[in-house]
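<instruction>
Derive structure tokens from the sequence
<data>
Labelled lines for chain and fold
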Amino acid sequence: MIKTLGYLAKFRDWRTLLFAGAAGFCVFSVLAVAVATKVALADPTILLISTGGAVFGVFLGFVGCALRVIRKLNEQNARRDFALNNMAQGLSMFDGQHRLVVWNKNYETMYGLGATIRRGCKIRELLVARHAAGTLPLDPAQYEADLRAALDQGSMFTVDVEMPDGRVIAVVNQPTSEGGWVATHEDITDRKRAERELDNTRAFLDMIVENVPSPIIVKDAADLKYLLVNRATEEYFGVDRAKIIGKNSADMLPKALVQTIIAEDRGTIESGEISYQGEHGVITPGNGMRIVTATRLPVKDIDGKPKYLITVIHDITDRKRSEQRIAHLAHHDSTTDLPNRAAFNECIEATVDLAAKVKESFAVLCIDLDRFKAVNDVFGHPVGDALLGEVARRLEQVCQGAFVARVGGDEFTVITPTAKQPQAAEALAERLAAAFESDITIASHQMRVGLTIGVAIYPQDGADAATLVGNADAALFRAKSEARGSIRFFEVAMDQQLSAKRALQQDLRKAVEQGELALHYMPQANMDGQITGFEALARWHHPRHGLVPPDVFIPLAEESGIIGALGEWVLRTACLEAAAWPNRLHIAVNLSPVQFQHGDLPSLVHQVLLDTGLSPARLELEITEGVLIGDFARAVAMLRRLKNMGVRVAMDDFGTGYSSLSYLQSFPFDKIKIDRSFVANLSHSRQSATITRAVIALSRGLGVPVVAEGVETEAQRKFLAAEGCDAIQGYLVGRPMPIEEYARTVGRTPARPAIALVASA
């Protein structure tokens, strides 16, 4: 009633009651007067009736107001209930005694309370009911204790409850002034999922940015302070990111560089476009000088104003160093670190051009290292490489101001500065020779090598690079042929000799291409004289020079690169010929060391055998130890591939080198051939006889057949037979001749001589 009156007073309904009372008073007064005309009524009675009418009017007004108030309250309650039950959150309200007084449907259904919920039930009952229903994965007693502790302090109590079904409910308990509280229960599952996805996305992006190999820097567009850097930036600066964040370029980099960086940053921010800065050097705080490129990207906020500046740095320092190393390797020898042939060619061309302009003279010195092969063979390639390094050091020490290059295995070339020639070149050559008069110690080995030097002077010995170098090489060739360790200057006769050599090389190339060479066959026999096979030997009958010896044209072929084509022709021709013999004799073919250095020799042999139809067991390939001196591993690998085909491999000229015994240990040869120089001296040289006996005994111990070359007398044959030699080869058995001369031996019928018909007079 009090609340109703209060409501009436609030909305000023007293006016309605006043009006109703006045109306009732008037109505009852009129009625009383009307009655009084018929029935005598005293004035007090009339007044009493009028007052009662007023009271009755007030009563009726009150009833009307009350009905209207009740209707309004019902409407408000309906709106309140509608609002509560249509809230996205669940809502519950508790009084000071922790009793439930208000809740909405979402609260009821959110926790599956059902019939359990009722007005006046305690918070503990609701928590226990929720725990039983599986909608409170927390301890009810602990939850209530934490709630009361917060409410007692007048603080808001919030908690996120993860439901067993995966939902997440955010509960906010707000205390009221009466000692109770209002609780909202919001399903934030989607929001939490979105937050987790956002967090995952951020973590993913952070991980990507962190692991990008290029430095990434994010700066504030306003003050250009570092806001974010990745791990690559730490490595780039050589500084921990904690010392970078919040700083700017002036705090990290040299002052001269900072001005450029700030200008680039400001320019990019003002333009609003991506900018690219080409290769430039940066001195970093802890990583030294770096060569980098930079890409800048301004980032704007929602208002279109510059917010951040992203800089991606591409550190190309290592690439540049690699390029420099590659460029260095392309123009320098890896063993001595001297300029190589390519660098020499560039230098000689430039020097000739310069000397022609200034009208000056200079010299080219071609240098050959004497006795290097012996060092390489006796002590091995590592010692040989170390020796080359020491030779290079001494050459550079003597040739200060001159260009020194290594152009071959043990060949060096020097280009002198312009000076008075030939005096300066002669003095330099003598100093070079003197520098190698003392011993060289490599890996505790004492050794001595010398220099043989050929010299050509610009411009009298050549006005262009090719001629000048060729003539210096001709002078070296003459020096090596006349006296090792000597110095020779170019002479015109040398040029003539060199021209003749080049002409002969051209003729040889033409002869190989046009099939002008021939094969002669030298028989090999058992000790009793029975021929078991032939060695194929190339012969060249020059149209002007006549028969050119193999020891002349074979080196020419190796020097000029013709040996590949020549070797293939010999191999193919010999195999084709042997495949046609009725008697299955073996055929031996010599291989050059150069054939092992270029191309795939085993594949070539395999293809030739297929093409000619010759059985691999009938082919015998003869090599010298020169095959193994170069790239030993490559040569042995090729020889093993050949043996796997069924081809036999023989060691030729055994005993004339330095490492033959080690080679016999490294590869299982099928035959050993004693060099003809030992056989020729059997009768008058104790050393030759001793070496021959030792080789035969060694071969028998290894179980390898031995063939003696150069057997020309019966005495030689008997000596070899007595020592246990297996086979012989030489003029005693037969000379190298066309195969037609051995027709019966190979199983063919000899061709009949032609009958000459003479016309009668």
The chain has five domains: 2-84, 87-192, 212-321, 332-490, 515-746. Residues 2-84 form one domain. Residues 1-5, 7-12, 754-761 have pLDDT under 50 and may be disordered. The CA atoms of residues 110 and 685 lie 118 Å apart.
